[in-house]
Design goal:
The chain is α+β, with helices and mostly antiparallel strands and about 150 residues long. The chain has 5 helices and 5 strands; from the N terminus they run H-H-H-E-E-H-E-H-E-E.
């Protein structure tokens, strides 16, 4: 199984060009980093880089994993940032269902102000939304917000 820590370690090895410097950046001993790479090589039954080469040279397998790291790690970082924003209430989705066209007169300026204050919140505006119990009532605007799921401490 390929883990994020494996991809990060390979990326840092590429950036530093040295097991010693990569271990320092990862706050590992050189031995621990060497064991991590050996574990990966044993699992995939091939070397990831040529040891004792200057400059450091990656094998085809190592280059393929680095390509994967270049694709995956930025997406994981973005997802982590998005999750942090959702948890803090800075992002989310606001769903608005409008039953009357006259609501647009006051709602649009209000939404403009809302967008200025909460740029990361998606707005979903639906018109002609019909709630069966509301047919006897006058037209109304229904607003609901999906709050972030509380995290466990």
């Amino acid at each position: 199984m390929i883990e994020l820590r494996h991809l990060r370690a390979l990326t840092i090895l590429r950036e530093t060009g040295s097991m010693v410097r990569a271990a320092e950046r990862l706050h590992l001993t050189q031995s621990a980093l060497s064991h991590l790479f050996r574990e990966m090589e044993d699992r995939h039954e091939q070397a990831l880089f040529v040891r004792k080469s200057r400059p450091l040279r990656f094998t085809s397998a190592g280059l393929r994993l680095l390509q994967l790291a270049d694709e995956v790690l930025p997406r994981v970082a973005l997802a982590q940032r998005d999750l942090a924003r959702l948890a803090s209430g800075q992002a989310g989705r606001l769903n608005i269902a409008i039953e009357c066209h006259s609501c647009y007169q006051w709602l649009m300026p209000t939404l403009d102000k809302y967008r200025d204050d909460w740029p990361e919140v998606e707005l979903d505006l639906s018109s002609g939304f019909h709630f069966a119990p509301c047919r006897r009532w006058c037209a109304a605007t229904w607003i609901w917000w999906s709050p972030p799921i509380p995290t466990r401490n």
